């Protein structure tokens, strides 16, 4: 190979490497890692603020994620993750019949999130959609909630499910 061919091959390699770095940096997910809590969320979502340290010594911690969903009545959707220390006693969740009788288009269910049992409550109305997942981690309650306009449910639910699927909690 002559010198011109080597220079051209080097330039092509550099351009490919730069393109790969740009693609990786503008796609993929963000990672939240604070105290005992970690999860991933889409890059299209922004972390607005965090309160507390998400560890066993913290009484209360919270992080809020937002995204502007195009073509939504109110363009902003919210995902709120809270961790609060458990008080003595147990959290008494209302029964399925109570929730269904008081809220139209509501759902109640249980799920396994990692090694923890969780209760999910959802309500979908003409102006707002909301889902809450309550996870008992032993010493704390971890509460994940989304609130969005109904026509932003699909994008918000995808981000919410990504958080639940990648959720890591250590104590």
> Biggest sheet: strands side by side, in what order?
3-4-5-9-8-7-6
Helix count, DSSP H or I runs of 4 or more residues: 3
CATH fold topology:
Protein Transport Mog1p, Chain A
CATH architecture title? 3-Layer(aba) Sandwich
Summed over residues and divided by their number, the pLDDT gives a mean of: 80
Portion of residues in beta strands equals 35-45%
CATH superfamily: Mog1/PsbP, alpha/beta/alpha sandwich
CATH class: Alpha Beta
Give the number of domains.
1
Content-based structural category: alpha+beta
Low-pLDDT ranges: 95-103
* N-to-C order of helices and strands: HEEEEEHEEEEHE
Q: Distance between the terminal alpha carbons, to the nearest Å?
A: 60 Å
Biggest pleated-sheet summary: 7 strands, antiparallel
Describe the global form.
extended
Tell me the number of strands. 10
Helix content: 25-40%
Radius of gyration: 21 Å
Chart the SSEs and their pairings.
Elements: H1 3-26, E1 29-34, E2 37-42, E3 46-51, E4 60-68, E5 76-85, H2 96-102, E6 106-113, E7 116-124, E8 129-136, E9 140-148, H3 153-166, E10 168-169
Antiparallel strand pairs: 1-2, 2-10, 3-4, 4-5, 5-9, 6-7, 7-8, 8-9
3D architecture notes:
The chain is of the alpha+beta class. The protein contains 3 helices and 10 strands, in the order H-E-E-E-E-E-H-E-E-E-E-H-E. The strands form 2 sheets. The protein has a 7-stranded antiparallel β-sheet. It is extended and about 80 Å long.
Question: Gist?
Answer:
The chain is of the alpha+beta class and 171 residues long. The chain is built from three helices and ten strands.
